[in-house]
Prior knowledge:
Pfam family, one: CoA_binding_2
Domain ATP-grasp: 682-719
Helix content: 25-40%
GO molecular function: ligase activity
Strand order of the largest sheet: 1-2-3-4-5-6-8-7
Domain N-acetyltransferase: 20-170
Mean pLDDT: 89
Low-confidence stretches: 432-445, 657-671
Distance between the termini: 20 Å
Protein name: Bifunctional GNAT family N-acetyltransferase/acetate--CoA ligase family protein
Amino acid sequence: MQSYPNHWEADVVLTDGGTAHLRPITPDDADLLREFHSRLSPETIYYRFFAPYPKLSDRDVKRFTTVDYEDRVALVATISGTLVSVVRYDKVAPEEAEVAFVVEDGHQGRGLASVLLEHIGAAARERGVRRFIADVLPENRRMINVFREAGYTAQQTFDEGVIRLTLDLQPTDDSKEVMRAREQRAESRSIARLLFPESVAVIGASRTAHTIGQTALRNLLGGEFQGPVYPVHPEAKAVVGVRAYPSVLDIPDQVDLAVVAVRADTVVDVVEQCADKGVHGLIVVSSGFGEVGPQGRARQDELVRTARAAGMRVVGPNCLGIANSDPSVSLNATLSPDLPPQGPIGFFSQSGALGRAILQRVAERGMGLSTFVSAGNRADVSGNDLMQYWQEDPATHVVLQYLESLGNPRKFTRLARRLAKQKPVVAVRSGGSAQATPTGHAAGGLALPDYAVTSLFQQAGVVRVDDITQMFDAAQVFAYQPLPAGPRVGIIGNSDSLELLVKDAAIRQGLKPHDPVNLGPQATAEDFDTAIQAALAAEDVHSIVVVFVPALHPIGDDVARVLRSRSLESDKPIVTTYLARQGIPEELRHIGDRGQTLFGSVPSYPSPEDAVRAVVHATRYAQWRNRKPGRHPELPDIDRARARATIGRALKKATPAMEDVAWFGGERRYDEETAISPEDARDLLACYGIAAYPDIKVDSAEEAVVAAGELGYPAVVKADAPDLRVRAGGTFVRADLRTPEDVRSAYLSLEDRFGGEAELVVQRMAAPGVPTVVRAGDNQSFGSVVSFGLADVTAELLDDRAFRLAPLTDMDAADLIHAVRAAPLLFGLPAGATSLAEQPNVEALEELLIRVSRLVEAFPEIGYVDLDPVLVNATGAHVLGARMWLREAPEVRPDAGPRRLRGVTF
Length: 906
């Protein structure tokens, strides 16, 4: 029997936050299907079959469970091994199929039908189906709404008492938005179930002091959790004075959340007991999983599979835990005894080891947290899930993330961009800028320098900082001060030397500081008040840095009251170096009725440079949030079908290319990709409206003359090797060849210069312009990335290039060009030009960048594209060199297709 693709199997989150497992049906599901049908109500059966159908015959069961995964496909959803929903399609024409659902009564309203429609629709498109037909009884309003609200283009007819819906399965902007909105609600709800439990069990609670199990239990109790806490111990009657139970199954009441602190080899047994108990979520603080090697990774995958199959999400393993400061829950399910007070900051950390130190630092700075999650190995719940939750959480105004890797980079950038439009996202990413193989070569399409990582984060709206100290510096402004409306900075203080340090730091960081207002060492609180009020009233002041050092007589408290008072009524951020103290000192806090630090508190920094850096982060973020998002221009001459065929043809002809290539001063290894021929590369670019100049490889001077005659004069003869510009400067090209003798002489000169070191090719010459380089490909950490720089030795040696995430908007393309330091060369007159009519056509270059970004985003088979050079002159952007590497496409591309949780091995 034909097998089904592996990516048709997936774990999904339902609208109530639970999980289910989706997979194609098999003949082994016969008994499950009978049991499922027997649990359906007569009404549900009637809606599905349009007649009473109390029992499935053996013939029915065989027909329903035996499919060919081509013309007949059926998917089932299971929870704890029980079948709860079925969707199927049967082809009735080459591009048309009938589709039908049935969801068990007890699981209706949980979003199963919607998510199954996404998955069956994706499977159908892979099999060439373009339209679904669904016959629905008029009274089956719930199922009609599933189809209508899917976002697909739909038509409806009514005949003989049945509504026929026809759905065009081509994804639309509406269908994608519907899918993303449902994903956001479901994943947000799954996190809320973890953060707002009504009861918690600690499995592995120990009577021995300072063990993980007892620590977790004591912290729950000491944090004044508002619900019951149940220790689980196989023998003890009580742990730390609280009644204990032999297993979670012996607890008489509902358990919402379980903290698991047992040996790694017994965790899966505990998870199965939690599944039988109906627990909603797990926090696995135990270690001994993916961090210890392949055996631990296998154990970790089994843990996640078991939990998700039973409808549970997992935080961890090897994690510090989670906390929620909301007074209605007061949850401290962490291994840290002391949590910061309630506040507006949501914090996600991958590192459990750093988690406790992070919590201590937050408290020391006088800040507060809304929620805290340390995900450890991040086997299931990740920072992406938390971003979904924080987007709509009214208690969270700022999001902090300590990241060691990005499990799904495409989803991260999509979610971060959406969240950052509402709330600041500050991230520390450790572990270097490029993922590396054990041999030290960059794995994936583009090995990115550190500044590129920062620019890609900025494009997504994420404020990237270098370390945790800078993270908290930025968080203080974002959490407790308004955003600046512009880059103009007012400087007020009683120390002229420190004020000059502020001004110098602001200039270096790209701000526009006013001349400092020096109040002198004897300044009083009233003097500070007058100066601050004047700055707040000035339209050309967008933020204020106040420098205060102790005077001969103590007026610190009076100045603090002035700062706090003016901050409360200001719509401009105020920061200070107050007595060189860090954080939000008590004197500068605006305190709420629960003792928490509130908006209007004034951040203090130990040095002027730290204060300015925090203002810079706030200013750049505000500018990003206020900028126009740009648009994705219509490109009607794109032929995706021809591109797909070209890729298939090129892959069949290509041979593996094992080579180290120096580019932009770095190395890139093509060890899983294949170089395709220049002709195939040009054909593929042409499918996306990109015309690359043809060239002809030649092995003799006479062949060069013939090639020049075919291509036309003036001609170019050049040595073709990827790193010759750096190694040979401009000596590898002979241009403006207008006669056969010119071509012959140029060929002989280059042959003598390079010998057999590089191939020689002939090409028709383009009009003079500014040579640039456009590169794009798949980066392991970020997905599809486009880079741009000028094609000269200086630019490459200085690493003057810029990066953006694909696909590019028109604004992204313009920003990418302006981001390189040599960009002014593209906006003036080139050497020898006499009028503005000869100025480089930058608009054509922007369109080229957009087209390249669409190409690499559309086809994961494209590992790397190198357009070098791209000559930009008055007539356009001309691709004079094109190299391309392809690879076998992954079965399923991250963050593409229907909703799914990050995969484990099924």
